[in-house]
Amino acid sequence: MNTIFPHILTQKLDLKNWNDWAWQLRNSITSSPKQLSPVVKLYPVFITPYYLSLINRKDPNDPLKKQCMPCIEELRDTEAEEDPLYENKFMPVPWLVHRYPDRVLVNSSNMCAMNCRHCTRKREWAKGRVMRTLVDIDRMAYYVSRQKRIKDVIISGGDPLLYSTDRLEYIIKKFRDIKHVQIIRIGTRVPVVLPQRIDAALVSMLKKYRPIWVNTQFNHSNEITKDSRSACDKILAAGIPVNNQSVLLKGINDSVDTMSELCRLLLTAGVRPYYLYQCDIVRGARHFRTSLSKGIDIIKSMRGRVSGMAIPHFVVDLPDGGGKVPIEPEYIIKRSKNRTIFKNFEEKIIRYNDIK
To answer: Considering 65, 66, 117, 121, which one is annotated as catalytic?
Structure first.
């Protein structure tokens, strides 16, 4: 991978105020005018000092570096769409995606604690780091209040945990006060890239609005550290489940051994491996994509060799707004009225007699 900013990896890390999440954001590595290249003009850089510290600077193929450092391959992908999932098409009001009948996604901002190079919303980066106004939030909440079939609200973005705790509470309360909303989910990569943000005040606030679920994104076992474990522990201790939604990324986690190790360690951290996403067909991310058969083979090879709890659902978010579709290895060879013939994880043929 042709990294654009190799000098970033030589920067010394200042440990003063290391555990202050606001300090982490203020001192994040960003693209500056002097550093601008064609890649950066399209896809800006934002890396927390914490995440930078996890990179093995001696390894040119470090899996964490590939997730946060821009490279020339981002520019070479010109055929894919900027919005392959057609999210803009499914916005009845600005920033609210209503693709499924019973749930909506609140695009709470276009700010993240790290600009992941495989992000499906890279198109938002050119707009700068912008949070939604209270008017925006109120408009989205009003729409949800008028749609009684909506039971599930996913607050994502950008990353909602970059808001102050008070502002985030305003957003959550707006949707929790809607009687027909049963579940609130928060999509965040903060436990992975900015674990210092998960403090006592935040989890105490979140606890008031349960049932809340936190979905995060660990993509490699090197991201599971003492700090990220501590962040997840605090959330779990508040009675809030934590699920993981990995993205299958070429050269980062696209092997059975790498994915198995990640999922095993997630379980030890109390985090459920929930989804393994096929990397979206988004412009600037082609070099991360694998074939669908690669993901199927990984899941197939994990079956029977690691705990069932450690095996995520392999999912493709279909283009053109087609929605999420799970893909499983083929275990059924033949079906008749009263008999099904299976091939198990050891390739053994087994006949199962059904109820007549």
So the answer is: 121
Known active-site residue 166? no
119 is catalytic: yes
Burial environment of residue 325 by CB neighbours within 10 A (0 to 12, 13 to 18, 19 or more): exposed
pTM above 0.85, yes or no: yes
- Residue 104, CB-side half-sphere exposure with 13 Å CA sphere: 29
Rounded-to-integer distance, Cα 44 and Cα 69, Å: 10
Active site residue 68: no
Active-site annotation holds for 324: yes
CA trace torsion 300, 293, 295, 119 (10° rounding): -170
pLDDT in tens, 14-65: 667 899 999 999 999 887 545 545 555 678 899 999 999 999 989 989 999 9
103 is catalytic: yes
Which of 99, 122, 174, 300 does the annotation list as catalytic?
99
Buried b (16+ CB within 10 A) or exposed e, 33-52: eeeeeebbebbbbbbbbbbb
Cβ-based neighbours of 164, under 8 Å, separated by 6 or more: none
Considering only CA atoms, which of 36, 339, 51 is closest in space to residue 222? 51
Q: Determine the pLDDT at residue 256.
A: 97
The letter for the amino acid at 318 is L
How much is the pLDDT for 40?
57
> Residue 28 to residues 11, 45, 146: CA-CA distances in angstroms?
12, 9, 40
Q: What is the three-class DSSP state of 356?
A: coil
99 assigned to active site: yes
Residue from 62, 65, 117, 119 carrying the catalytic annotation: 119
- Angle at the Cα of 48 (from 88 to 62), degrees rounded to 5? 95
Catalytic annotation present for 303? no
Please state the three-class secondary structure of 131-169 as a single string: ECCHHHHHHHHHHHHCCCCCCEEEEECCCHHHCCHHHHH
